[in-house]
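so im writing up the methods section and need the Dioxygenase record in one place, dumping it here so i stop losing it
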Amino acid sequence: MVDFSGDPSARGFYAPLRFEADLHDCQVEGTLPAALDGTFYRSCVDRRYPPRVANDIPYNADGAIDMFRFRDGHVDFRSRYVRTPRYVAERRERRALFGAYRNKYTNDPLATDLSMNTANTTPIVHAGKLFAMKESSPPMLLDPHTLRTIEEHDFGGRLGATSFTAHPKIDPTTGEMIAFSYEAKGDLSDDLAVHFFTPDGTLTRSVWLKCPVVSMMHDFMITQTHVILPTTGMVTSEARLLAGENHWAYDPAVPGYVGILPRDGTTQDVRWFQGPPDRAMLIHATNARTEGNKVILDAPVARGNFNPQFPNADGSPFDHEARKNTVRRWTFDLATGAWDEEILFPGVTPTSFTRMDDRFITKAFRWSFNLLTDTALPWDEARAGPLGSQWNAWYRFDHLHGTYEKCSAGPTHTLLEPQFVPRGADAPEGDGYVIGVANNLATMASELVVVDAVDFAAGPIARVKLPFRLHMQVHGWWVSSADLPFDFGRDYDYDGPQYL
Ligand SMILES: [Fe+2]
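--- predicted struct ---
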C-alpha cells in the first residue's frame, strides 16, 4: 500500500508527485526573449514509495529530471524519473528497499547487490551527453531529448571510483570537464580522485589523493591552473552506520581543510591548507581564480552545521545562527601558506545556492545570483501561510563593489535556484536573463519565471505557467541550442512512458 501519511516531510510542495508529464506549448504570460533558445534541466527529488525508515531526509528521495525547452517564445515541458537500479527494483517490488541516507546496513536484503544511486542532485550536459548526478554514485546517463535513462555510466570503464561529484566543472575556455570523487573507494574511505576530461567527454586522467578527514565534499572549484578541494565538518563512522543513522553528523571540532592541486599536477603536488572549524562548511562556491601565487575563491560559508537533518556529533542542539552563510573571499597564498578571509557582504545571509555567468568560471568576475529568505519583501501570509525559512528572493550580488539588488516572483511565491542565461554568446558578463522555478503557495502551482538580469529589481518579465506543482528542485542547468542542438518538437516526440 502506498501511504505517505506517516511521512511528515511529504507535505505541500514536498509531497511526492509520482507522475511524469509532457506539456506541449506551455502557457506563457509576458514575452519570452529570443535569447532563450535552449534547454533548462532541473534535478528534483520525488519519492516513488514512502521511506523505509522514520524521519528519512529529502536528499534520499528518488531523482527526477524536468526539461523546459525554449525557442521563439514557446516552451515545451517534460518530466521523467531517472531509472536508477534502485528506482527499478523498488518499482518492481512496489515498496522502498533502501533505508537511511547512504547507509547500506539499513537496506532490505533485496537491495544488497544494487547501486544506491538516487541521481537526484544535478543535471549536467557535457559533450552532448546529459548526466543526472549524485555525489555518492557514478552519474546516470540520459538521452538529452527524451530523458530516457540509458545507464549508470563509468566513462567506458575508466572511472575507477565508486562515487562522482554532483558538481563537475566545465572550463569555458577549453571545454574540458573536471570532476572529483570522495569516499572514492567506498564508504568511509579517505580516498579522493580528481578526474580530467577532454572537451569530447573522454576521461583521460585521474589523480588519486588522500584526504586529511573523511567528510562530505559537496562542491569544488577550478581555476585556469588549479583544482580546489574543500572538506567539511560533516563526518561519518562505521559505528554511526551500524547504529542505523544516516551517513553524516557534524563535528564542530573538525578544522576546515582545502586541498589545492595544480591542474597539470600529480598526487605529490597537492597542498592542504588547514583552517579553523568555522571554515569547514563550504557547500557551494561561486567562483575561483589564480592570480600569481594566490588562489582566490568567493563562496557562501556557514560557521557551523548547515543542516538540522544531520545532527551534531557531540549531541549539542542545532545552532540556527551558526547555519547562516556569509559570502567570504578566501585567498590562499601558495608562497607563504597563508589562508586569509574577507567578508564580502556583511549582514547578508544568503543560502548556499550561488550561481553566476558560467562563461566566467575560472576568471575574474563581478556578478553572482543567490536564493534567500528576505522578510523585508512583501509577503501575503493570509493567502500563502507563514514565510518561515522558505526562500522568497533572488539577489544579484556585485562582487566588485559589495552591493546587491533583489527581486521576488510575487507575495505568494517561493523561489528555487536561479539560473543565468547570457543574452548572446558574446554578451558581456551578467548581460542576460535569470530563470528559475517559483512555487505559488496560494494556488499550489509552479511557474518558471524570467528576470532581465540587467533590470533585476523589476522582477519577472515573463512566466511559464504550469497547471500543477512541480517536484522540489535541487539544482538546474542551462544549455543553449548552439551547444545542444534540437529540432523543436520533433527530436523528442512523445516516446511513451519508460516502463522497466
Ligand atoms: Fe549542490
